[in-house]
Amino acid sequence: MSAAADLRALKLQADAVPATALPVRVGIVEFVRPNPNEPVLDATTHALVEAFGRDNVHVAYYSLFGLEEAVRKGEVDIFIASAGFYIRMTPWGVRSLATVVSRNYPNPNGNDGTLMLVRRDRKDLVSLEDLRGKRLATSTPYAFTGLQVPNREIYAAGYDPDDFFKHIRFLGDDDKMIGAFDLLEDGEVDTAFFRLCLFEALEKKSPERAARFRVINEQTEPGEACRRSTRLYPSWTAGSTPSADPRISRLVTRVLLQMPPAGESGLYWGVATNYSEVDALFRDLRLGPYAYLRSWTIRRLFDEYGTYVGFVGLFVCGLLLHVMRTSRLVQIRTAELAQALEREKHLKHEAQAANDRLSRIEKASAVGQLSTIFAHEMRQPLGAISLYAFGLKKRVDAGQYDENVFAKTLAKLVDQAARASQIVERVRTYAKAGAIKTTALDLTEAVKRAIDNLRVTGRAQAHIAFEPPQNSVSVTFDALDLELVILNLVKNALDAVKPLAEAGRVTIRILNNGAREAVLEIADNGLPLSEEGFAALSALRPSQKSEGLGLGLAIVRSILERHSGRLTFSRCETGGLIVCVYLPLAGGDADRDGVEQSKA
Predict the structure, then answer these.
(1) Would you say residue 76 has pLDDT above 50?
(2) What is d(CA 89, CA 241) in angstroms, rounded to the nearest whole number?
(3) Can you list the domains of the chain with their CATH numbers?
């Protein structure tokens, strides 16, 4: 079915109302020519005649203020004007029906803008700021795209549009803006504002002449059909007035939206859903619905400073209430002062008693922690002493007196006894909160010593693979504390692989992470840890092992914190756990602060 047939069908569906009962009065605002939207006007008039009948469609052209007056007086039912005119008239009850769109600009919310041109040889005019104090040529003082749209860009740049140009030459509507090109070439004006796509029409008609001009403040996006110097706004808008019969508004909307594209640009009517940019323009420039902002009225006062006025009012009310309360509070406070003094004496007495209780609790806690460390760490040397003594006794019972074996065994007994003495002395040092003496220690030798002790005591039942580094790694640590850390962590790894029997394996490596730290990595192939178990490790909560006190990791962490070290855990993909101990390298920042470090 043809477009004309569709329009006739619309005419027949006019709610069974005779065409003569639905006259349509259309008002069109005068505009600057040439205008890329102009072809849509003839097509729209033709479509309305097809739908309502020639005798029922009355089209009239108005000046901007003439159309505004006609809308207010109810002399038009439908108007076609700029988006700016539509927003200005919204307080009088107008409603948008459709907005012009084109093949190049199909978005109804943004398809119209302004181009700012200067002469190409004007090297002094490079940016928008350079136009300040210059001469401008444009259409009319109230043109939406001719003046208001570019003025918002000037406002956004931080200038007052009303005082930006030295002189503005208004050329008028119709085709008078073509003369702006001559004014630019002759140097009578410095810049001119043109509507969207007018410059492209000049380039097509006279490319040599168009090459004499240059765009200022260009905001054209890649692939855009026409160059522009401003953001985009909705284009021509068809709206209905409060005086229009609702049936006319409905039928006109259907006619507009079903019209085929018109003109070379493929112009048609769409529906704009967002006029917020137009509203923001009027507010920024204090025009249209926001013209009251240009004068000091009660409305402007509350509109601009309503929040502050409200705060001031609340402050004054609060101040009055405060004065009333103050007189009453003075009486109350005076009576309470005596009670407060007495209560303060009582509270001081209670606070002193509470401090005494806390001191006793802290001392008990410290004794408990020291006892825990002592009980946990003394098992190793005492176990070794017991094993060496048991071995000597077996040899004595068997009558095997080998002086060399006896001498070596006795030496080891002396070493373990000395180690036990060191642990006792260390606990005493902890109790006195004394200083910890650190020195540069060979980490490889410390690991080997710890492995030998575990093997002697029979704890190293699984395979221990130690991969010493190629170069010596020295760390700043206390010798006994370093051995306690390594022993505790290796023992934990051995306990983890016990269920695997001979398949259990513990791997120890020494690394350097390049951050003035040595990394001691202890990995085992034990059973996979549950989320709860791993969380307990990361939180360093006491373990639930059947043997020991379950505080080994807490002790390790305490020792490491005193030596500026740290401890991390990670799970192996195939099961087991990787424990990384980060120790300060000898000669690092921690070592440079002094060999003696205070206990944490």
Answers:
(1) yes
(2) 9
(3) 3-108+234-294 (3.40.190.10), 114-216 (3.40.190.10), 435-598 (3.30.565.10)
